[in-house]
Design goal:
Keywords: Hydrolase, Protease, Serine protease. Belongs to the peptidase S8 family. GO terms for molecular function: serine-type endopeptidase activity. InterPro entries: Peptidase_S8/S53_dom, Peptidase_S8/S53_dom_sf, Peptidase_S8_Asp-AS, Peptidase_S8_Ser-AS, Peptidase_S8_subtilisin-like, Peptidase_S8_subtilisin-rel. Pfam families: Peptidase_S8 (PF00082). With 453 residues, the chain is α/β, with parallel strands linked by helices. It folds into two domains: 343 residues, Rossmann fold, CATH 3.40.50; 77 residues, no CATH class. Helices cover 22% and strands 19% of the residues. The strands form four sheets. Strands 3-9-10-8-12-14-15-16 form an eight-stranded mixed beta sheet, with helices on both faces. A four-stranded mixed beta sheet has the order 1-2-18-17, with helices on one face. Helix 8 packs across helix 9. It is globular, with a radius of gyration of 21 Å. The two termini are 41 Å apart. The N terminus is likely disordered.
Length: 453
């Protein structure tokens, strides 16, 4: 269960805002309210139509589609094992049997309910994730049976039937010194030193988040395609996703705002979280990852966390790995709350990013855990938000895009290297921090762009 957000306070400073937010049981999210610049963007209208869940949504081209992001053909892959049925289930209809003993009737319909999700995988390894919309257990059994029969007829294996899991943006807990006047991460980590060799040009990066403000002056023409899994549509966008996108790709040398660490990349805008509250489900995140892979992403950023994973999410991550895509995830903001694990970061393939402060210490909010791989700047990071504004935010959500930017720079500089090699390059060139070798606070250490690029 999620605790409700505490109030977020926004203080203007030359068209910037300092965000001070209360923490959540799982994760937190922020909304700034600093005044717009000379040409403010009006509040976009949202749609109420439900998202399409049985097939990935169509690509919505941005203002200037870029060649780095393009559809791919799925490589052949071995099918994962199908669900094992108990002896009591063996004589029942296959689809119906999947539901017995697995679905709690209380999750079907009613306030706050989440969908039942059926995941199947075809011969090429591409997962298909379908939501069961039934409101009773009998209806769910019937609908799952139909979906299972359809999958089998199409040569697909049903690998899981499960309830969906709610996730949220890994946002901005309270920070002690938010008034930092510059981008300390770029000053200390020298991303610009790699630009003569590679600024990320030719690399496609997907941001799975709350929707990027496509018309932000510092992100204009950066987004090649957009898609939505929230029902709001891509015309509705969030501060969180826009902040993450700016850390990665904000335009340099335009006399406006901030600078991205890998400004040459093309972006895919995969909106899996709602614009304002930053809420979504693991199914939406999974479908966004699959869409990003299908549309040419070479690196995917997920500044997202949930209290548990799901088979659908794991299948999507496996699909990214099978298609040579680097995946970066925020490690979690529960460092002051017992350090529970956060998904998708806790899975093996994503590079799980912890957060450090400007002085090189672990950010107090940064989750410690056995799955942490590296640490990166995440406290008091200034970047783009909606309405052509800028704000300081803190969180592992801000650490992850610094790692994503480094992965993009490395992919551009070393195009022959696989995703696994890029992943290894980032983790083996770190600056060892904390205990010698790997530790639960910094993973293998703090990223070192000069060595990794």
């Amino acid at each position: 269960m999620l605790m409700s957000l505490v109030s977020c306070v926004s203080t203007p400073l030359r068209n910037t805002a300092i965000l001070v937010c209360g923490a959540m049981l799982l994760l937190s999210s922020c909304v700034a309210s600093a005044p717009p610049v000379e040409q403010p963007v009006s509040t976009p209208a949202t749609t109420t139509a439900p998202p399409v869940t049985t097939i990935p949504p169509a690509i919505q081209p941005g203002p200037d589609p870029l060649s780095a992001c393009h559809p791919i053909g799925a490589a052949a892959a071995a099918l994962p094992p199908a669900i094992s049925l108990t002896p009591q289930q063996a004589g029942a209809d296959a689809g119906t049997a999947f539901v017995y003993g697995m679905i709690d009737p209380s999750v079907l319909g009613g306030p706050g309910s989440v969908p039942v999700v059926v995941t199947s995988v075809g011969r090429q390894g591409r997962p298909e994730i379908q939501e069961v919309t039934a409101s009773t257990l009998d209806e769910a059994r019937s609908e799952v049976a139909a979906l299972a029969s359809e999958s089998i007829a199409q040569g697909r294996q049903v690998v899981s039937v499960e309830t969906d899991v709610r996730v949220r943006a890994v946002g901005s807990p309270v920070t002690n010194d938010p008034w930092r006047p510059s981008q300390w991460a770029l000053n200390q980590f020298h991303f610009e030193s790699l630009w003569p060799t590679s600024n990320g040009s030719g690399v496609c990066v997907a941001v799975v988040d709350s929707g990027i403000a496509l018309n932000h002056v510092d992100l204009a023409a950066k987004v090649a395609a957009s898609a939505d899994w929230t029902g709001e549509g891509t015309a509705s966008y969030g501060d969180h996703a826009t902040h993450v996108a700016g850390i990665i790709a904000a335009t340099p040398n335009n006399s406006v705002g901030t600078v991205g660490a890998a400004p040459g990349v093309s972006l895919l805008n995969a909106k899996a979280l709602t614009a304002v509250s930053g809420e979504g489900t693991t199914t939406g995140v999974a479908q966004a990852i699959i869409w990003a892979v299908d549309n040419g992403a070479q690196v995917i950023n997920t500044s997202i966390g949930g209290s548990s994973g799901s088979s659908a999410l794991l299948q999507a991550i496996n699909y990214a790995q099978a298609n040579d895509v680097v995946l970066v995830a925020s490690g979690g903001n529960e460092g002051l709350k017992g350090n529970p694990p956060s998904w998708p970061a806790a899975y093996d393939w994503p590079i799980a990013a912890a957060s450090i402060t400007e002085t090189g210490e672990r950010s107090s909010f940064s989750t410690q855990g056995s799955y942490i791989d590296v640490a990166a700047p995440g406290s008091s990071i200034i970047s783009t938000i909606t309405l052509n504004r800028y704000a300081y935010m803190s969180g592992t959500s801000m650490a992850a895009p610094h790692v994503t930017a480094l992965a993009a720079l490395a992919r551009a500089a070393h195009p022959a290297e696989s995703a696994a090699q890029i992943r290894s390059r980032i983790m083996t060139t770190t600056t060892d921090t904390g205990s010698a070798g790997w530790d639960s606070s910094f993973g293998w250490g703090v990223i070192n762009p000069s060595a990794a690029g």
